[in-house]
Structures are given as C-alpha cells and as structure tokens.
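Human:
Focus on the backbone:
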Amino acid sequence: MPPLLDSLVPGLVLPALGVLLVLSGLSLVLNPAHRDVRWYATLRRPQWLGFSLWSLFPLLRGLSSLGFYGAALVVWIRLHSLGWVALVLAVGVVAESRFWVTCRSRRLTWGLLVGLFSWLAALLVALQLQPQAPLVTVLLLPQLLWTPLDMLTTLQMIQLNR
C-alpha cells in the first residue's frame, strides 16, 4: 500500500463506517410509502422529459448521495471537524428528503422548497470549504448541477398537475 494510504486507512475506517451507517439508516427512514410513490408516479411530466431521461434520475440522485458521502469523509480527513462533517451530512439528508417530503405531503411545491433550500445549503458549504478542502466542492458538484434540473422539472410538473 502506498505510504499515504497506509497512514490514512487506520484512521479512516471508523469515520467511513460511521458516515455510511448514518446515511444508510436515514435513507431507509426517508423512503416514502408505496402508496405515496404510486401517487407520484401518476403525476404528469414535461414532454421534453422522455422515459430515457426520466430513467436517469435515480442514477443522478445516487451520484449526488455518493458526493455527500465522499464530501463528509474528505472533511473528516482534511479538517477533523465533527461539526463540519455533521453539517455536510445534514445538507445531504435535507437533499435526500425532498422526494419524501413531496410524496408524504403530496405537494410538489413543498418538495420544490426543500430542493431549493438543499441546493443553497450545498452551495454555501462548498464555497465555505473550498479553501481548506477543494475536493469537497468537486464532490458536491453532482448535487449543485442536478438540483436546478430537478427544480425546473418540478416547476413544470406543478403547472401540469394543477
């Protein structure tokens, strides 16, 4: 193992497992009920959003989740700050909860507000951590790029489903 990785691995295992455990547990809690997902599936979507593009949404969402996971680990490695790790994870939880909020409330507008808040929070975290840990900004890019497309889609779905 290269010397850098050799020194990182022992100190990284517990934080990595802790972050993974927290995110996995929260993703289980934030899964909406089947009846709520069925409601969401019946909503009309913009015509430009064909089936092939719509089927990419879970992949994009997954990349965003991995970005938060990676960002939390990088924050721990570079800053050893539990406060910053908790903040990165909290922003990730808010981002992940958008779909749950939309489905549970059955209001696209509420999901839109959660999405907007999570995007602003991710942007502020990325900008704040850029000088100390530039990799965090790179890891949050999927969220920062994906959310505007998601919000545009949601705005159009609000219009289509009035």
